[in-house]
Specification:
By secondary structure, this protein is an all-alpha fold. It has one domain. Helices cover 83% and strands 0% of the residues. Helix 6 packs antiparallel against helix 7. The longest helix has 29 residues. InterPro entries: ABA4-like.
């Protein structure tokens, strides 16, 4: 599979997991996936394969914006970066769902946080922290 095909597959897998978190968060399958972090683990394996296989780009690195730009100019490393986002954003989504359950935050308040986390990672996490703080103070 080329980078574009892998991108499509991993994006679809992550989107399905987000859909389950949002729409079927109480379903046994969803709960199993959350408790075992199966999708982030799969994405982590894919990430490791791509980062190990393609990291050696002359001039690329993490020391400056220019070095990161050089890394991301390679489709395989850009894909690795994308998979990194997908995996970590899902872990944050799992954390939000678990925290909401433990704190009895209604799921309808969690849904916008999950959608925002899916689209813009830290913004959704921030929104959840605000919702959680407001709900806890009552």
């Amino acid at each position: 599979m080329n980078a574009s095909q892998v991108f499509s597959v991993v994006s679809a897998i992550a989107a399905l997991q987000w859909l389950l978190l949002i729409a079927l968060h109480k379903w046994k399958v969803t709960q199993w996936l959350v408790n075992h972090a199966a999708v982030p683990l799969l994405l982590s394996v894919i990430y490791c394969i791509y980062i190990a296989g393609f990291f050696g780009i002359h001039g690329g690195g993490f020391g400056s914006v220019q070095e990161v730009r050089i890394l991301f100019s390679n489709d395989n490393l850009l894909l690795a970066g994308w998979v990194h986002y997908l995996a970590f954003d899902l872990l944050i989504g799992f954390s939000i769902v678990k925290s909401a359950r433990a704190s009895a935050v209604p799921h309808w308040l969690v849904i916008p946080c999950l959608v925002l986390t899916f689209m813009f990672g830290p913004c959704g996490y921030l929104l959840y922290q605000i919702v959680h703080k407001i709900k806890s103070s009552k």
